[in-house]
């Protein structure tokens, strides 16, 4: 109960109502004390006027008048003369004097609080204005015991009424809020739980029905979210099925094309002029089809495993990449250069980093081959306080606009005819696995520069390591 929203709301409502009633209680007790003292002054004035009207009143009657007034003696000031009208034995010295002729509210509250927390019976003097202008000032002495008792009884009555009022108010608010707010909220929660059991079932999507504007807005937002999520899940399922089918087709098609590639290689040895002229185009077309199948299968595999980080000598790794690409250059006039400090070692997965640099260098080589002009590919590396930076530069014709707009989009970011663009996508995924990123630093008619940024700082379970 206490951990539920409704239970806490009930308790907080009761507390706030009680606090509000306490703010009313203190001034009420102060006002009651003032009225009590003023009533004693009025009774004392009536008793003194009875004595002034008949000087023959005996001691017994005088005592009776003082007892009825609840005071020990009465002093009445008339015509600038101070006169002790009624008197009796005072049980002790006067402990305090209170002037009620023009009291401040703060003073009355302060005196009433002090009175409540002083249990001993004391004698006090009270000064006030006589009613109906029956003199200038009236003074009485009285004990505080009956006053404190009356104040406690009055405070208890007010507090009891406040407690009853607080409980009733809290219950009414509790049931009102529970019906108007909490019940619809629980309904929304129930819809969410039901939807979570089968998100692809459109019948489980919530239908907004709340009459409260804020709750209805929440239901509408949840309805839109569930609708979009259901559609996305269905689309994802269809894409997964399509991807599985494409992977199977690509696998079988690759095997078929590999056989066709072997046959097409023999066509180049034919003496027929037409066959000699068309054979290179057939071989190139089959090779592109094989590459497309292999790239599709690679991209369709499960997510790349987490990199196994070790210290890598970058100059050796880049040397392996360049040696491999030199063999693939063939008759094209392409040169390679590297500017890597011999002592530079970085933290990376050597196999994955090789694939990243290989893809970038291969793309650069293919771009220069397409241009038909001579070119150069260079790989440079440096380090800062936070990162290792690897740049792959080429002097090719630059990336076309479509490739720049879809640089890391599968099957759309290819820079050459027949390209898939999957090399950059896979490379970017591998670099992200290292906590870094690949950036297109520059591309224009003078060439293209890709920047690979690998962070030196790696976080394990929230602890930064170097």
Automatic annotation (TrEMBL):
GO terms for molecular function: phosphorelay sensor kinase activity. It comes from the Bacteria. It holds the Pfam family HisKA. SUPFAM superfamilies: ATPase domain of HSP90 chaperone/DNA topoisomerase II/histidine kinase, Homodimeric domain of signal transducing histidine kinase. The keyword Manganese does not apply. It catalyses: ATP + protein L-histidine = ADP + protein N-phospho-L-histidine. Its EC number is 2.7.13.3. Keywords: Kinase, Phosphoprotein, Transferase, Two-component regulatory system. PANTHER family: HISTIDINE KINASE 1, TWO-COMPONENT HISTIDINE KINASE. This is histidine kinase. It comes from Pseudooceanicola algae. The lineage of its organism: Bacteria, Pseudomonadati, Pseudomonadota, Alphaproteobacteria, Rhodobacterales. The gene is sasA_13.
